[in-house]
Specification:
alpha+beta, six-stranded mixed β-barrel, 41 helices, 29 strands, ABC3 transporter permease C-terminal domain-containing protein, transmembrane helix, ABC3_permease_C, membrane
């Protein structure tokens, strides 16, 4: 019957014209949709708001995150400075070294080599000329950096410090402003003696803008940082004498014979020669050709000698300058000096040079007066923030100011030598015979010809289109390689500059964070997509079920099924398209505001338009959500027969569908298909994606895979845990009714509702559980991981304040003066510093020492590599003892106790109560092992004994990582052997630990860790290796001797110190730590010493991850909003399906409030049960992930509950369920019983 009627309508439909069919159908569809919206506006509003909210939020997040490179550039500029490429000079001896450094920025200093015999600068003029032809380069600016002490000359004022150690930075302020170098720091061109000073430095000196400050500059200290000579030991006179020897004495001795400069003459001998010398120089001055021939003769001798190129160049320049002057003038100056000598006075060129070196050395430490132009709170990328206190001056003013300050100091020094030198001494005679005014005039004339902008200490380059170059690591590597290749293609590989990329190096860590954030967006998109699809699906499926009769009538009137499909799709798109448009408009407005803020902050410009990826995501979501949501409703609408569709009293709840089909007969097994697909996907991810991510170092892919695995884990756990949903709901419902005993009589009704609504409620609660589990996982996971990251940071640095000399600076810290300062601070404020401790340079990093050390059992197998470092006895009490994880202790040793009551295992290496130091003989050829056999062997063969001498066979105490108990077979109960080159040392393992702050310790056998020994043992090993005493300078290895002589004075045990750990005794404010750090920086020797305020670094790391927490709070709010509408739609459908029962209950005596509470109790039990399951699942996955991370870091587990997200999600869901169920009932609760029973509401 049904099929016959539908066939007749179809035949009638065939007689209509094509356009008439289309027109009529479109009109029917449009009118139907319009009337439906007017009839039920709530469904339209919910659908519109859902699409609008999801599109707007996700598009805004995606578009905002597309601007993350600008934020990362800004953060990296603050860390490393606003310079894309830095060209630094490479001395000629190091030209064969790598010229491009994309990794950590290290100096060319290699203390195991004989380094440099000169001072190199960058030819800025040539750099500018060459880089103009490189399309990637915008421009460059020169810079010069030195260290000085800033002082406030005002008296009778309170100062935190008498002087502040500061970097003195010379820049071309006009050029840097024009090219945008340090563009975020709003400053004007610097004039005269004006300077920019960091605010912390001004505060320490109690100075302000407009004050006149003194900057003490030690030129020798500056040169000693960049010029290392064989005789350099940080003594100014020795330094200058080394320069005299290199550039003056050596060429003179090549011309006049060895020891010419040290040949001693009496005053009587020189007086006889002086008159002849005057006559000779007068002849030369009167005969230019002879003078030129003599100069060329000297220069030829120099050029043919075996000295270095730098020495030849310097000697030739000296001869050019000398022979361009009146030689008679110099000969008469010399004669005046000789006449001042007594006949019996003995003098040599070298003696005169020593006096001159002392005068110059005293004069190269001078003060300049500076006027504070601006106070700089933050450099904002103008220079690296880690440099600390900075004084910035324009180079145009600096040349004259530095010159005049030096001349003034030189004049004062000469006068001092005249007045205070012993009478008739060489010092007095030299001082009185220095032609000061002529010398000063020559210095002025010479410096006037110097174009400082042509030669710089560094050349700082800015690239074009910076933002696009820093979007990912591949772009960074490509542009660095392109620029460096283009440059060296033009100048040659051996051009004496080294290219470093500080900004690119700093931005790497932020790019990793960017990949991390991208995965957060993907996760949030997935979560909100699921919720929105289910919400739209619930709306559409509800409409289909409610409109079964209407759809049946349309089909009975000739409406074909495919037009019914179009009607349902268009109905979905009626709210999808407006929601998409409104979402994009709102997104554009908010994105413009965010972009404006970012552009203003970063002072970089991009587009205000929504990112293309965000637009693509918006259209994808706006179109995909209604399409995906309509699949099942369409199938439901088309599955009805006309008879069922026209059954006015039909209710979905009464459906009984029996459909038995053996899919195996069709070759399909659902279980088999999904199981096979899951295994294939797992195999593909495990064997292809994960290895590929590690092989190609694709961090983004690795994070994406981890993200997918975590999402699948959450879904899997949720599906398993959802098996307990039904009994948990019933248990919670009984608990609720026990609390509200007056509604105990409603128990059976509520249980009946739970069973009747199970299918619809299951989908709703499942999605809510997944959403809640994901959000709780994200909140708890990131809180736990933030704790792990900050723990790693604190464990790596080790203390509240950590001062570290870079590995490139082998001379280390000025231990003596730093100790004086710290002891003074403790005396003034005993509560500030709990303790402090120095550590030595790792033995493998000391020049000329072996690079590899090994430890083994007495059997000499197995053995494992170890890096030895010396610590003081109080090392652990100076560190953050929370990150000290001890394991085994030597039962024979008495250990001190730390503040937390734990035994200090490191202190045990200083306990020598049971060691066995004994006399031993050393055989450098190690021909035999026993002293008795060795003696007999030499005697029988009549061999002369090699360099055999008696020494002390000292037993070494050591602390090793716990993992060495497995790999090296050593422990605290058995003796072991330490290998240093071919030397073996008896060793006692005093302690084994999993973690020691500041050092690499692990319980894993595969890790190569650090071994801690005492300062005494380190001194013994080094002295034994070099066959001497490093404190006395009598080592057999001359290069090692020179190195140890160049170290700062008064080092304990003579060992270089590369690390200082300071632990505060009380809570400190940030300003207090800044003041303390500024005072401590006064004793830093150069810019290769870094100070880490670990407390501040921890806070900054926590603040960074706090923004991620805020992001997830926003996602939680959006998710709860969608959940509210999802629950509302679900409960509206439940109420409508049970409307007849609702009316019956009203008829038998239940009041409106009771029936309302029936649905509220049902909603509360559902949401509470799913909330508990979601919370548990989220916490379990978060804890699982954190435990996995802790397997690598080996820190103790800390549980951190995400309170904010829990309150928003769980309690928000509770409120949402209550409100949604109340609103669902509100629609029919006030209707009459008859209306409800007839379904006419």
């Amino acid at each position: 019957m049904d099929d016959t009627h539908e066939e007749e309508n179809n035949n009638a439909y065939l007689y209509m014209g094509l356009w008439q069919k289309i027109t009529v159908t479109i009109r029917i569809v449009v009118e139907y949709i319009y009337s439906d919206i007017k009839k039920k506006p709530r469904s339209f509003k919910i659908g519109l708001f859902t699409i609008y909210l999801v599109v707007m939020f996700l598009a805004l997040i995606q578009s905002a995150f597309s601007l993350s490179p600008l934020i990362f550039i800004q953060l990296a500029e603050t860390t490393a400075g606003d310079t894309d490429l830095v060209f630094t000079p490479v001395p000629s001896e190091n030209k064969t070294k790598s010229n491009t450094d994309i990794g950590p920025q290290n100096s060319n200093f290699q203390a195991s080599q004989n380094l440099v015999n000169g001072f190199s600068l960058v030819n800025q003029t040539e750099i500018v000329r060459i880089t103009k032809g490189i399309g990637e380069i915008f421009d460059s600016a020169p810079r010069w950096l030195m260290i000085g002490n800033l002082q406030n000359p005002k008296e009778n004022i309170t100062k935190i410090s008498d002087q502040i150690r500061s970097f003195f930075l010379l820049i071309d302020s006009e050029k840097e402003i024009s090219i945008g170098l340090g563009r975020r720091l709003d400053t004007n061109i610097i004039n005269n003696n004006e300077v920019l000073v960091t605010s912390s430095g001004l505060r320490g000196l109690n100075a302000t803008i407009g004050d006149i400050l003194n900057l003490n500059i030690d030129v020798i200290q500056f040169l000693s940082t960049y010029v290392i000579t064989e005789n350099n030991n940080n003594d100014p006179t020795t330094f200058i004498m080394a320069a005299f020897d290199t550039y003056l004495n050596r060429p003179l001795e090549l011309i006049y014979g060895e020891n010419f400069t040290r040949q001693e003459y009496t005053g009587y001998q020189l007086k006889d020669l002086s008159s002849e010398f005057i006559l000779f120089t007068d002849i030369l001055d009167s005969n230019p050709e002879m003078k030129q021939d003599l100069k060329e003769s000297f220069q030829n001798q120099i050029n043919q000698s075996g000295i270095s190129g730098d020495q030849k160049d310097m000697a030739n320049i000296a001869f050019d300058i000398l022979f361009n002057q009146e030689l008679g003038y110099f000969s008469r100056l010399l004669a005046t000096f000789i006449q001042s000598l007594g006949d019996n006075d003995v003098i040599s060129i070298y003696m005169v040079e020593e006096v001159m070196a002392n005068i110059i050395a005293d004069s190269l430490d001078f003060d300049i007066e500076l006027k504070v132009k601006e106070s700089i709170k933050s450099p904002k990328g103008k220079w690296a923030d880690g440099l600390g206190n900075i004084v910035v001056m324009d180079y145009r003013n600096a040349t004259i100011i530095l010159r005049e300050a030096f001349i003034l100091t030189l004049n004062n020094t000469i006068e001092d030598y005249k007045q205070n030198s012993p009478t008739n001494s060489i010092e007095e005679i030299v001082a009185y015979n220095i032609p000061a005014e002529d010398l000063f005039g020559y210095i002025r004339n010479f410096t006037d010809g110097i174009k400082l902008e042509q030669f710089s200490l560094t050349s700082n380059l800015i690239v074009k289109d910076r933002v696009s170059k820093y979007t990912n690591q591949d772009n960074i590597d490509n542009f660095v390689l392109d620029v460096s290749n283009s440059f060296f293609d033009q100048v040659g590989y051996d051009y004496p500059v080294k290219i470093t990329v500080p900004l690119a190096s700093a931005i790497k860590q932020y790019l990793l964070l960017g990949n991390f954030v991208d995965n957060l967006v993907v996760s949030a998109t997935f979560l909100l997509l699921m919720l929105s699809i289910l919400l739209i699906y619930s709306l559409m499926i509800g409409d289909v079920e409610e409109k079964t009769y209407e759809f049946g009538m349309l089909r009975a009137l000739g409406f074909q099924k495919w037009w019914l499909i179009i009607l349902l799709l268009l109905q979905a798109f009626t709210f999808a398209i407006p929601g998409l448009v409104l979402g994009l408009i709102t997104c554009y407005i908010l994105n413009s505001l965010i972009s404006m803020f970012i552009f203003d902050s970063a002072v970089l410009m991009s587009s205000y338009d929504i990112a293309k990826s965000a637009i693509g995501l918006s259209f994808g979501l706006g179109l995909f959500i209604p399409l995906a949501s309509n699949i099942l409703p369409i199938l439901r609408a088309l599955s009805k027969t006309l008879r069922d569709s026209l059954d006015l009293y039909h209710r979905t709840i009464n459906d009984i569908l029996v459909n038995v089909i053996k899919l195996e007969k069709m070759g399909i097994s659902i279980d088999q298909f999904f199981s096979a697909a899951l295994l294939v996907i797992m195999g593909f991810v495990s064997y292809y994606l994960i290895p590929m991510a590690f092989i190609f170092s694709n961090i983004q892919l690795a994070l994406a895979v981890i993200n997918i695995i975590l999402i699948v884990m959450i879904i899997g756990f949720t599906l398993l845990a959802n098996l307990f949903e039904e009994p948990l709901e019933k248990g919670l419902l009984k608990l609720i009714l026990c609390i509200f005993k007056k509604d105990k009589n409603l128990e059976k009704i509520i249980f009946k509702n739970l069973e009747a609504h199970y299918s619809r409620n299951w989908k709703t609660t499942l999605m809510y559980t997944i959403a809640l589990a994901f959000l709780i996982f994200a909140g708890a996971g990131f809180a736990l991981q933030t704790s792990v990251i900050t723990d790693v940071l604190q464990s790596f640095l080790g203390a509240d304040i950590s001062v570290q000399a870079l590995q490139s600076d082998k001379r280390g810290l000025d231990e003596y003066n730093i100790r004086l300062f710290l002891n003074k601070t403790i005396k003034e404020d005993p509560s500030l510093i709990y303790d402090y401790s120095f550590t030595s340079l790792m033995l493998s990093q000391i020049p000329e020492m072996p690079q590899s050390h090994f430890i083994s059992t007495l059997a000499k197998f197995p053995f494992k590599k170890i890096f030895l470092g010396a610590v003081e006895q109080n090392y652990l009490s100076s560190c953050l003892d929370a990150f000290y994880i001890p394991n085994d202790y030597d039962s024979k040793v008495k250990y001190t106790t730390l503040s937390d009551g734990v035994k200090d295992g490191v202190s045990g290496i200083y306990d020598r109560s049971d060691v066995q130091d004994r006399e031993a003989f050393y055989d450098p050829f190690t021909l035999v092992g026993s002293q008795q056999i060795r003696q007999q062997w030499y005697k029988d063969l009549s061999y002369q004994k090699p360099n055999l001498y008696t020494t002390i066979d000292r037993e070494i105490n050591i602390v090793v990582p716990q993992g060495y108990i497995y790999e090296a077979g050593i422990n605290v109960d058995t003796p072991s052997i330490l290998y240093v080159d071919r030397r073996l040392y008896r060793t006692n393992v005093r302690h084994m630990a999993t973690k020691v702050p500041g050092y690499l310790f692990s319980s894993y056998r595969s890790m190569v860790g650090n071994g801690l020994i005492s300062m005494e043992d380190a001194l013994y090993i080094i002295n034994d290796y070099f066959q001497g005493d490093i404190r006395e300078g009598n080592l057999e290895n001359e290069r090692a001797n020179l190195y140890f002589q160049s170290l700062p004075k008064n080092l304990s045990y003579g060992l270089p110190k590369d690390n200082l750990q300071i632990r505060f005794g009380r809570p400190t404010s940030e300003q207090e730590r800044i003041d303390f750090s500024n005072a401590l920086r006064n004793y830093f020797l150069n810019e290769q010493t870094l100070l880490f305020d670990v407390i501040t670094l921890k806070k900054e790391a926590e603040d960074t991850f706090y923004f991620i927490t805020i992001f997830y709070v926003l996602v939680a709010i959006v998710a709860m909003t969608l959940s509210f509408f999802l629950i509302l739609v679900s409960f509206v459908s439940n109420v409508k399906d049970n409307s007849w029962e609702f009316g019956v209950l009203r008829a038998v005596g239940l009041n409106k409030a009771q029936i309302t509470r029936v649905y509220i109790y049902e909603a509360v039990s559902l949401i509470t049960a799913s909330g508990l399951i979601g919370t548990i699942v989220g916490l379990v996955v978060a804890i699982t992930l954190t435990l996995q991370i802790l397997m690598f870091t080996e820190f103790s587990f800390k549980f951190i509950f995400p309170t904010e997200i829990f309150l928003i999600t769980f309690l928000g869901g509770f409120i949402t369920a209550t409100g949604a169920s109340y609103l669902a009932v509100l629609e029919i609760r006030d209707k009459s019983i008859s209306t409800i029973l007839k379904g006419l509401y």
